[in-house]
Amino acid sequence: MTQNHAERTAIIVVAAGSGTRLGAGVPKALAKVAGESILAHALRVAVDPELASRVVVVTPPGDGRLDASIEAARREGVEVLAVEGGQTRQESVAAGLAQIGQARRVLVHDAARALTSKAQYQRVQSALSNGAVAAVPGLAVVDTLKQVDRQERVTSTPDRSRLRAVQTPQGFDAALLRRAHAAAGDSGATDDAALMERNGSIVQVVEGEEQALKITHPADIAWAERWLQEQAVPVPRAVLPRVGLGIDVHAFSDDPAQELWLAGLHFPGERGLSGHSDGDAVAHAACDALFSAAGVGDLGTHFGTDRPEYAGASGATLLGAACQVVRQAGFEIGNISIQFVGNRPKFAGRREEADRVLSAVVGAPVSVIATTSDGLGFEGAGQGISARAVALLVPAER
């Protein structure tokens, strides 16, 4: 609808229902649907400068509990007013009509149809723009309907193909709707289009929508909440990194034939480390850091003594296998940082070589540094080597 048409249009949101059948203990418009009041849902769509320049909310007589929701709905470009309703819907709509000012068109909407879309308003407005003096949204009736007498005896079976279940907003020429209300007196009509019909106006039906059901019973709230959940756009889950810590300790071997392998490198002439595999504490700490970050167990889970195929395996072999495990678990490896503590071997001259070898095995940056314990502990006593590793993983894109 053009801005000019919006300036000549007012919307009446009827929110004066008591909500007795809903059993919420508050006016129906304040009952919660997915944590927000029915009125808040309705006004989120109705208060839109593209639809109307004035919105009149009809509230329960003598009850100011809707005021906060009305105040929260205010928006630049739309005047939002509140007026107390009457004892019947017809009286409430009449009270709203008295507040629409010079509007030439008026849309009357039930707040209880809280999930009505902007598109439904626009379909009604389009019919008015194309010459209709009254337009209502409606759905085809899917059930067979029976007309009965006062004793519940069937008197006729209407052709359902010609029937429509009417919804809101209902759009009207404002002057004609005023006349229809004046002519109706105190008939207690529950449908403004019916008043227009009685006054000789032709009412045009436009396409309705399933979600514009009138919330009347507790089951309707449950349906509305399910519908909102189905329509919700999933919020992308933040791709957060995972960090894991690994620690490994190996004593020096008493076997003079045991060679020293550390950080994937061979150190000739150095005393080897004991262990089920080659005793490479640096590579083993890196494995545990990866497993810890991925939440898939530890070194013993995957390469324990119950796995004879890994007896004597090199640290580089185990690290490569560990990388495969975490990638199959859905992670990419960001980097691994490792520090080992020991008096020997002298490492500074081979640090860059160790970084290159382990980075090639992992397929991601790996850095290794070394330090001593200043003579403290078993490392300082020359009894063995300890290593600590931190691994960073990122969930792989699927």
Automatic annotation (TrEMBL):
Gene3D superfamilies: 2-C-methyl-D-erythritol 2,4-cyclodiphosphate synthase (3.30.1330.50), Spore Coat Polysaccharide Biosynthesis Protein SpsA, Chain A (3.90.550.10). Its cofactor is a divalent metal cation. Residues 242-398 are annotated as: 2-C-methyl-D-erythritol 2,4-cyclodiphosphate synthase. Transmembrane segments: none annotated. Pathway: Isoprenoid biosynthesis; isopentenyl diphosphate biosynthesis via DXP pathway; isopentenyl diphosphate from 1-deoxy-D-xylulose 5-phosphate: step 4/6; Isoprenoid biosynthesis; isopentenyl diphosphate biosynthesis via DXP pathway; isopentenyl diphosphate from 1-deoxy-D-xylulose 5-phosphate: step 2/6. GO terms for biological process: isopentenyl diphosphate biosynthetic process, methylerythritol 4-phosphate pathway; terpenoid biosynthetic process. The record marks 21, 28, 276, 372 as: Transition state stabilizer. 4-CDP-2-C-methyl-D-erythritol 2-phosphate binds at residues 248-250, 276-277, 298-300, 371-374, 378. GO terms for molecular function: 2-C-methyl-D-erythritol 2,4-cyclodiphosphate synthase activity; 2-C-methyl-D-erythritol 4-phosphate cytidylyltransferase activity; metal ion binding. The keyword Nucleotidyltransferase applies. Residues 242-393 form the 2-C-methyl-D-erythritol 2,4-cyclodiphosphate synthase domain. Keywords: Isoprene biosynthesis, Lyase, Metal-binding, Multifunctional enzyme, Nucleotidyltransferase, Transferase. In the N-terminal section; belongs to the IspD/TarI cytidylyltransferase family. IspD subfamily. HAMAP family: IspD (MF_00108), IspDF (MF_01520), IspF (MF_00107). This is Bifunctional enzyme IspD/IspF. It comes from Galactobacter caseinivorans.
